Amino acid sequence: MRDRIVIALLLGLALTTMAAFMGVNLRGNIALALELRGIRLAALVTVAIAIALSTVTFQTITGNRILTPSIMGLDALYQFGQAALVFGLGGLGYVSLSPLLKFGAETAALMLLAMIILRPALKSQMDLTRMLLAGVIIGALFRSMTSLIARLIDPQEFAVAQRAMVANFSSPMIDLLLIAVLVTVIAGGFLLSRRHLLDIAALGRDTAIGLGVTWNRTVMIHLLVVSLLVAVSTALVGPVTFLGLLVTALAERLTVSRRHDTLFAVAILLGVIVLVGGQTLLQHGLGQASTLSVVVDFIGGLVFILLLFARRIR
Amino acid sequence: MIEIKSVSLVREGQRVLDSIDLLLPRGGLTALVGPNGAGKSTLLSLAARLLPLQDGSVTIDGLPVESTPGKLLAKKIAILRQDSGPPPRVSVRDMVGFGRFPHSGGRMTAQDRTMVEEALARFELEALANRSLDRLSGGQRQRVMVAMTYCQDTDYILLDEPLNNLDMYHARQLMLELRRLVDETGRTIVIVLHDINHASASADRIIAMKNGMIAADGTPETVMRTEVLEAIYGFRVPVIETNGMRLALQYASCAP
């Protein structure tokens, strides 16, 4: 009952922020402005959905409430794949690839790397501290390797490629929007159809196996779906390290039920409110004083530290 | 029938199980006893596919555990582990309901709900039904886990030290319930016990393990003997006969 009220309130708030994003300070060619804003709104909402779904699922299959795909360095993996592609094809070759092909290749690279690196860790049931450490190392390693590759490439070529690589909340990758929405809808539908299975998986490996869950296969499939969603959000707006943690930690506090339909809904709505609301506020209230990812990471980082210190780590 | 054939397990160079052969026919309450580290929990975990088999085979009604689909096995055999991690923030009713997952796939029918309510009543959990699991005491949580295992409604039930944390009353109630399940519904229950007198009072068969091997196997009358218990536990345990039961007096002041 309380959860329904929370969802209704958040839904109202999310719709309000979306209306504000579309409507505040509309000037000039209104039809064109609405179209541009609509496209960006769609990108932000897609990112919110992708991050919320991937973080909740990742936390369920890893059995913890603190690690998220981006803390484990998955988005750094994606960017490494991007840089490796530029290196392999050269700047011009990279830019002239169709966005779809680029996204496909980068996503495949991410899924492959995630399988190779994360699956052994998940299978051997590493404890939280070690997973956290592994994540920090994976993230740092791949970020450094990305900048190493950037240095190896001819600077001029890299400058060409960088324009195609760097995305942020103010200028999301619009060419990818359609495929991103499609992937998010399919992955989201898949996760929603497996919500009961995820409820069981949240009870831990042994209990889940006892109840008939094929554990290793389940972990692998969901890890792949998580990588897919991370690829979507990183491709659209670049890495946002702490947004996932922020929305799942808040969702956990706002809801009573641990059921995944509720968790998914609340986390997605919170993501929309933070991203769309934050972007509106920064653009119109604070005159682009900062970028959204900096603000989100600042607040999310604080939540991360609070979670680590304020309560027993699960 | 659960058929365990020459099952061995080596962990970090230590031989945990040494070529175990065991037949557990349908029906009956079997108690698994023995000192700490004898391999009892490991054997149960292997039988219920929580651990991968290294050597040997386990079949349940002819189905090999390592290759049968998990869902099918979950309708045949249920296991309650000793340590299932930190308690989730789930209500008691929902947790017991999770036991229906192999049958319902998460979409509970009216029949599933009736079964959940029956389990709550059977294990005296109605008053706690809406409480969250992380707000319960260890013993209450243990009873919820047993109720969930019961709700899975399987022919075979493996319980690893379900009496942990239970007070005298609830331990007795649980043993009575298990006995009733065996007698009235023909289920097969295997239970790891440390209190050998509970085993003597309720079980049809006692299997004692020591150092990864089976040290004794038989009815309470044959196992509950001073010389048998001495071979298992390494000290002389006086055994008395009272009310038609054999009881071990393992207590500190009971000198043999």
From TrEMBL, chain A:
- Positions in coiled-coil regions: none
Q: Gene3D superfamilies from the entry?
A: ABC transporter involved in vitamin B12 uptake, BtuC
Keywords on record:
Cell membrane, Membrane, Transmembrane, Transmembrane helix, Transport
What Gene Ontology molecular-function terms does this entry list? transmembrane transporter activity
Where's it found, cell-wise?
Answer: Cell membrane
- Location (main, coarse): membrane
The record's InterPro entries line, in alphabetical order, gives: ABC_BtuC-like, ABC_transptr_permease_BtuC
The UniProt entry's GO CC annotations, sorted and at most eight, read: plasma membrane
Q: Which Pfam families match?
A: FecCD (PF01032)
Membrane topology according to the record: Multi-pass membrane protein
Q: Which residues form the signal peptide?
A: none
> Is Membrane among this UniProt entry's keywords?
yes
Q: Which GO terms describe its biological process?
A: siderophore-iron import into cell
Q: Does the keyword Cell membrane apply?
A: yes
What are the transmembrane regions?
A: 43-64, 76-97, 103-122, 131-153, 173-192, 221-251, 263-282, 288-310
The entry's family comment says: Belongs to the binding-protein-dependent transport system permease family. FecCD subfamily.
Protein name as it appears in the record: Iron chelate uptake ABC transporter family permease subunit
UniProtKB/TrEMBL annotation, chain B:
Keyword vocabulary terms for this entry: ATP-binding, Cell membrane, Ion transport, Iron, Iron transport, Membrane, Nucleotide-binding, Transport
Query: What are the subcellular locations of this protein?
Result: Cell membrane
Q: Which residues form the signal peptide?
A: none
- Gene3D superfamilies, from UniProt? P-loop containing nucleotide triphosphate hydrolases
Which protein, by its recorded name, is this?
Answer: ATP-binding cassette domain-containing protein
Q: Name one GO cellular component term.
A: plasma membrane
Topology in the lipid bilayer is annotated as: Peripheral membrane protein
Q: What Pfam families is this protein classified in?
A: ABC_tran
Where on the tree of life does the source sit, at the highest rank?
Bacteria
- Tell me which family the UniProt entry assigns to this protein: Belongs to the ABC transporter superfamily.
For this UniProt entry, the molecular function terms from Gene Ontology, in alphabetical order, are: ATP binding; ATP hydrolysis activity
Source organism per entry reads Rhizobium straminoryzae
